[in-house]
C-alpha cells in the first residue's frame, strides 16, 4: 500500500476519532490509523464522565501527606509499582515541580479555559451527529460521608462557583432525593449541572466511525506505525506494517503511546507517562443511579450506562508493559457497596485496565509544527476534552485562529 492523503490521523481513540470526523466533515480527506481496533484502548474502558468540573492538575499539593499511606496499600487509590520507580523518577520529579504555586496556578487556569470550551464543543457535536441518546448532559455528583470531608466539599464548591464552575451544595435529604439508592451514610454532596456522561462508549465510537466512513474517510486498523519521515514542511512519509503512506499533514493522537511517535519526528522528549486505570462493569445493575456519582472519601466513580453500572478509577504507575492487577478492579465492589442501600449484583461482571496519557504538567499537547499536529496527553480528561481538541486541530489544519489560546498546550514547553 503506497497511498497519498491530505491528512493522516494516528490513533483511533475518542480524541483521534473525533479529529478524523471533524476534519473530514470540513472537507479534507482523512486516513485514520490504529494499531488495534477503533476505540479499543482507554476510550473503551474509561468512566464515561464528561468531567468539565475537574479543573485542577493531577498533582495537588494537598494530597502529598496522603501519598505514603496510598503507596503502602497495594489496592489503594494510588499505587506505584516499585519495579517501575527508576524509569518513572524523571517524570515524577517534574510532576512534583509543577505543584509549586506559579506552575500550579498556570495549569489550573489553562484547564479552566479548556474545560469551559469543552462543554460547548460537546453539545454542538452531539447535536450535529445526533448523539443525544448516547451523550447525556444531565450533571454529576461528588459526595461525602464524613463531616470533615463535607466541610472541604463545601469550601471546594464555593471556590468553583467563584471561578465560574457552577455547582450546588446538597444536604443529605436533597442528595438522597436525587439518588434514592445511596445509603444514609452519604452526608451530602456537590451537584455539577454542566457535566455529563456517555451511556454507551462502544456505540459512540461505532456511530462516529460510521459517520466518518460515510463522508469518505478511510480507516486502517491493526496497522502499526514504525517510522515517520519528514520530506518537507508540507509532506511526510508514514511507514506502517501495511506499507507506506504519504501525507501533507500527520496528526499524532496516540494517547499513552504518543511519546514514541513524537520521537520519530522531533528531538523533544515529552514527559508523558501512563496512569493505569481500572474498571469493573456490572451488567446486572441497570438503573441503580441517575448520574455519575464520585466519592471524595473513597476516590472512585460509579457511572450508569446502558450496559449496567461502571465502577472506575484509581491510579497505578507501572508503565505500558506490566500485566494488569485485576484485583484492583474487583476492589471497587467492597468500596461501592457501603455507599448503597443494598449490595450490588456482581454476576457476569467484567474487569478492565487501560492507559491514561498524562504529561508532567497535566496539560495536553495540542500544537502544530511543520507537517505535524500533536493532540495527546489529556490524562483523565480525554473524553471531556476530545471534541474541543478536534475543533482546535481542525482550526490548525485549516490555518484559522483556534477557538482557545493554545500557547499553554505547546509541545515546545518541554524544550
Automatic annotation (TrEMBL):
- This protein's GO CC annotations: cytoplasm
The alphabetical list of record keywords is: Oxidoreductase
Top-level taxon of origin: Bacteria
GO molecular function list: oxidoreductase activity
- The source organism is Providencia heimbachae ATCC 35613
Q: Know the name of this protein? A: D-amino acid dehydrogenase family protein in hydroxy-L-proline catabolic cluster
A Pfam family of this chain = DAO
**FAD dependent oxidoreductase domain location:** 7-395
Q: Which InterPro entries match?
A: FAD-dep_OxRdtase, FAD/NAD-bd_sf
Q: What is the lineage of its organism?
A: Bacteria, Pseudomonadati, Pseudomonadota, Gammaproteobacteria, Enterobacterales
Q: What is its EC number?
A: 1.-.-.-, 1.4.99.6
Q: Does this entry carry the keyword Oxidoreductase?
A: yes
Say which enzyme class the record assigns.
Answer: oxidoreductase
Query: Has UniProt tagged this entry with the keyword Kinase?
Result: no
